Amino acid sequence: xxxQRIRRxxxxxxxxxxxxxxxxxxxxxxxGSVALYSDALESIxxxxxxxxxxxxxxxxHKPADQDHQYGHHxxxxxxxxxxxxxxxxxxxxxxxEVWRSWQAPxxxxxxWQGLAVNGLAAAINCFWALLLIRIGRKDKSPALEADGxxxxxxxxxxxxxxxxxxxxxxxxxxxxxPLLAFIVAINIxxxxxxxxxxxxxGLMDQAVSVEEHMQIRDIISANSRGALEVHDLKTRIAGxxxxxxxxxxxDESMTVGESHAICDRIEExxxxxxxxxxxxxxxxxxxxxxxxxxxxxxxxx
Length: 301
Prior knowledge:
By secondary structure, the chain is mainly α. The chain is 67% helix and 10% strand. A 3-stranded mixed sheet has the order 1-2-3, covered by helices on one side.
């Protein structure tokens, strides 16, 4: 169900990106504003990014195969990194246009009509961005969430452009148009750097958050009856999947079947609480314990 929802949203993102891009270019054509032109340029990036996100999501949902035995989860991070790079490229294009406009400011044509069209595009983008971010976080889809954040930067851009152009029209200060576009470009650069940094963390096998780490510890402790100790807990995130690995110490006289039953109980508990979890448990005899034997409960060393 989650897989189908993610793919469906990714596909609709392309359609919406084309629609919003069309509205923004109409707004620029109506006004001649460099700020609106800059906003429209970023929409081209949105179309490319949405297409890349759909590709990455489709690849990441492929089952494991002989060449990719741990799955294809990290494909989404490549899309997210690409989005970040495209955001930076869009910002640089905007800065170049600002420089040309600053040297020859132009009077805006049909400003109110153009702003109304741009406002409609911003409203559509805002709704869609919030939806993508919420579903992306819920279903642990980095590509979908990155696409949502990217679109949200577009929303911030549009709102800033609208406010600035209203001020330019009311005051007659035409220099506000290129100045506003420059501020927008700086904001886009900042947002793009955050997307890239976050995605690189996933590619580098970043561990789960402290809160999630403590949750995992609690689940293991609550379901480790019969074990003596758990140590060397390690985690990493790859797209939707969370990989968990740890060592579990049992009495050396315990049978393989008994220790396996404990492992099954822990794995089932983790699977119920953490979506798309992959668990590896290394069972060790009591001679490998790191804490004094006889310590109450099932402590972590």
